[in-house]
Design brief:
This protein has about 400 residues and is an alpha/beta fold. It folds into two domains: about 200 residues, Rossmann fold, CATH 3.40.50.2300; about 160 residues, Rossmann fold (3-Layer(aba) Sandwich), CATH 3.40.50. The chain is built from 14 helices and 15 strands. The strands form two sheets. Strands 7, 8, 9, 10, 11, 12, 13, 14 and 15 form a nine-stranded mixed beta sheet that branches. A six-stranded mixed beta sheet has the order 2-3-1-4-5-6, with helices on both faces. A hairpin with a 2-residue loop joins strand 2 and strand 3. Helix 2 packs across helix 12 and helix 7 runs parallel beside helix 8. The longest helix has 26 residues. It is globular, with a radius of gyration of 23 Å.
Length: about 400
């Protein structure tokens, strides 16, 4: 009798423990972040994750009565790996929200979030088409079309007349080139020729030689910031810096994470983008100080994609009183507006894409360091690629 009583007590305790664990699981909102933390795009994943973790550290790990937990996986920037990992996170980890990484990975998971009706926040990918692939995606990062379209309009009004474009042969590079050409030509500029370079291990020599022979006044270039140092070095070695040819491009060309190591050859390069470490607002100065204290390196535009993704999720959960249903959260996110370290931003209620200011910047040396110094602002910029598709 005594043994049976003990066993019953043990069983009751076990059941109570199981119930408590289930309740705890239900009270936890799991955000699955699938990022490139190793491989060629590891600095991108590092910045995004650091931004998300900083928001968590500064705002607490509980919202609307529910605990927030990050489930982080390394997809190495490979689409097939991202799809497998996100599927595992949905089935095994029971994640409630997905944080999407670079373009190949983001595109690979669109069908998964649609089928599972799980909201996904595009934190990194700058390719316009990603958000269109699922009604359960919103974007807190950027599109390369935003910065490139703005730059095309600015360039033609500021003495840039004959341009050769040079872009990486992948979706973000093509979209950046398309947006630039559209606004530049509509403003009266001339595109002499458009050149495409391979994304992996590009040799810029033949393209620079062709550009030299075509004698443009400007090169518009779009490829990842980690390649910019090699490009500008070859640009200078071939004497193009003394030929009068100017370099302009979207802001990832002079990425704040890469810029300190790119050298003085970058001084004077003009770009357009939505964020700079040197953005002069009080909120950004506070953000930069906190970020550097937490990580030991300066934040870049990718970091604010992760930081603002967490803000969007927190505010949406408050609006839904903790309901993590995909339809409820996406509805709460549409039209949301707030002040970010980058400046004012919002989520377009019709497209679920980011609307934000774009800044024209020039690389300058300040106190011995290279920074993107903003000198003009274009407010409330939408993605132009989507508008071009409707024409």
């Amino acid at each position: 009798m005594q043994r049976r009583s003990v066993l019953k007590g043990m069983a009751a305790t076990a059941m109570a423990g199981l119930a408590a664990r289930r309740a705890a699981a239900q009270d936890t909102v799991k955000i699955g972040m699938c990022l490139a933390l190793t491989g060629g795009f590891q600095t991108v994943g590092r910045q995004c994750l650091a931004g998300a973790k900083l928001y968590l550290a500064r705002n607490g790990d509980e919202v609307a009565g529910r605990k927030i937990e990050l489930v982080v996986k390394d997809d190495r920037g490979i689409g097939d790996v991202a799809r497998r990992l996100v599927q595992e996170m949905i089935v095994n980890d029971r994640i409630n929200i997905v944080g999407a990484g670079i373009t190949p990975s983001a595109l690979a998971i669109t069908s998964l979030v649609t089928e599972a009706k799980i909201p996904g926040v595009v934190m990194i990918s700058g390719t316009s088409i990603v958000v269109d692939r699922s009604p359960y995606l919103v974007r807190t990062g950027f599109t390369l079309g935003q910065s490139s379209g703005v730059l095309g309009s600015w360039a033609v009004k500021n003495g840039h007349k004959r341009v050769v474009t040079l872009a990486s042969d992948w979706a973000p590079g093509v979209e950046a080139e398309t947006a630039f050409k559209d606004s530049f030509v509509r403003g009266g500029g001339e595109i002499i020729e458009s050149l495409r370079v391979p994304l992996s291990n590009p040799d810029f020599s033949p393209f620079l030689q062709k550009a030299h022979d075509l004698a443009p006044d400007t090169l518009f270039i779009s490829f990842p910031g980690q390649q910019a140092g090699a490009f500008t070095k070859q640009f200078a070695e071939r004497g193009l810096d003394r030929s009068g040819i100017r370099i302009i491009g979207p802001g990832d060309l002079t990425d704040d994470d890469e810029l300190p190591n790119q050298g003085d050859v970058m001084i004077g390069v003009i770009t357009a983008h939505h964020y700079s470490t040197a953005h002069p607002s009080a909120m950004n100065k506070d953000y930069v100080a906190a970020f550097k204290a937490a990580n030991g390196f300066r934040p870049n535009f990718i970091s604010v994609g992760g930081y603002d993704a967490m803000h969007l999720i927190y505010q949406a959960l408050k609006k839904t009183s903790g309901d993590t249903g995909g339809d409820a959260l996406i509805a709460a996110m549409k039209g949301m507006a707030w002040e970010s370290p980058r400046g004012p931003m919002s989520i377009d209620p019709d497209t679920r894409d980011v609307i934000q200011n774009e800044y024209i910047r020039k690389v300058e040396k300040v106190n011995g360091e290279l920074f993107n110094i903003e000198f003009a602002t274009i407010e409330n910029v939408k993605d132009p690629i989507r508008g071009m598709k409707k024409v």
